[in-house]
Design brief:
It is a single chain. The protein contains seven helices and 15 strands. By secondary structure, the protein is α/β, with parallel strands linked by helices. The strands form four sheets. Strands 2-1-3-4-5 form a five-stranded parallel sheet. Strands 10-9-8-12-11 form a five-stranded antiparallel sheet, covered by helices on one side. A three-stranded antiparallel sheet has the order 13-14-15, with no helix packed on it. The protein is elongated.
Length: 251
């Protein structure tokens, strides 16, 4: 799922670009597009900085009341935000400013499929090349949060919610089933499911014992009954790629 923001103070431009995004998605049959519309730079900046909104792509007009698109992009970059930005504007005069804030593309209005679609190809290619680094999670408070996969230590089922434990003693609660969460993570070999209650990132396992594992966060997680042998096999295969090496080390 890709989160895409369109920011323009003209409603007809928002309608036009949103429809082109839908047409592109239908043509490409790629990942789901979650599109949000904004009518001012201040609005999108507020959502990103205070509401934990994390778009993968911003289609951003330059000329708007209040802060310009360039000013907003500079503020986002200064705070470390690396989302992809494609500028849309009626003039070419800000092209150098645009690429000074690491813009992906600079489109002169009227924006058309002939100009927008190649820009989207470029963005999607970059997102696909980097998608293994992040996952989008729907939190229990109805917020979509982007989480770096390497930051996930383990996940635990807690009644109707799942808790994702992250680095720096952070955690995120999700309103989804453990089955659904594992479907999202199972394509990444680093994650292994233990019984009905746990998903563990093997990169964070420091020591593995018959009844528990010690994680690099300092936490001890007790293994579900009968899960040790399979976990041990997956752990060694993940790191060494050869099950014959499993006999060299016993905890």
């Amino acid at each position: 799922m890709y989160q895409i923001a369109i920011c323009d103070d003209e409603e007809f431009e928002l309608d036009k670009v949103e429809q082109m995004l839908k047409d592109y998605h239908a043509k490409s049959a790629g990942g789901e597009f979650l599109i949000r519309r904004f009518v001012s730079s201040e609005d999108i900046f507020l959502q990103i900085t205070t509401k934990n909104y994390q778009p993968d792509l911003i289609l951003l007009d330059i000329y708007m009341p209040g802060s310009s698109g360039i000013e907003t992009a500079k503020k986002l970059r200064n705070m470390g935000n690396t989302c992809r930005i494609v500028f849309m504007t009626s003039s070419q005069e800000h092209a150098l400013d645009a690429f000074g804030v690491d813009a992906f593309s600079y489109l002169v209005k009227p924006v058309s499929r002939e100009t927008l679609f190649p820009a989207l190809d470029k963005v999607i290619t970059d997102l696909v090349n980097n998608q293994s680094q992040y996952i989008l999670l729907q939190t229990a408070n109805d917020c979509v949060q982007r989480v770096e996969l390497s930051d996930i230590i383990y996940c635990e089922a807690q009644r109707k919610k799942q808790c994702v434990f992250l680095k720096e003693n952070e955690s995120v609660y999700l309103r989804m089933t453990m089955k659904k969460l594992y479907e999202m993570l199972s394509s990444y070999k680093r994650f292994v499911k233990l019984g009905a209650s746990y998903i563990v990132n093997m990169e964070h396992i420091e020591q593995l014992y018959a009844q528990m594992m010690l994680l690099d966060s300092g936490e001890e997680v007790y293994l579900p009954r009968g899960s040790y042998k399979e976990l041990r096999e997956q752990y060694f295969e993940y790191y060494f790629g050869d099950k014959s090496l499993m006999t060299i080390r016993t905890f």
